[in-house]
Amino acid sequence: MSHFTNMKTSFQNITYLEKALNKLDILHQKQKNSTELEKLNLTINQSNGYDIQFAWNGQEYELVVDMSFWEQPYPVESFIDKIAQQYAGEVIIGESQKLGSSLIYRIYIYIYI
Length: 113
Known about the structure:
Helix 1 packs across helix 2. The protein has helices spanning 14-23, 76-112; strands spanning 4-11, 29-32, 40-44, 52-56, 61-66. It has 2 helices and 5 strands, in the order E-H-E-E-E-E-H. The chain is of the alpha+beta class and 113 residues long. The protein is globular, with a radius of gyration of 18 Å. The chain has a 5-stranded antiparallel beta sheet. It has one domain (4-112).
């Protein structure tokens, strides 16, 4: 009997979440969210058929998993911690680049106008 656990996370941006998973070499697939069609879920396939999913709940991507069929090389808490650390780095880089581009553009206009 399956019993799914929904674990809250602080992941709100699918792009940064995907980059974090890619950097950690965690293979995943995008799937349409059944409740919010403009949002996507990320699925991590497991060989036992009980996949792990990051599902959009309206505020964040929560981890949905059947804990009795967990098949990753480390405990779920470590799994989330590793992803969270990488995700935080991606957010810092991505948001800094957005600010930097904006700031450079403003300086350029100021100098040349």
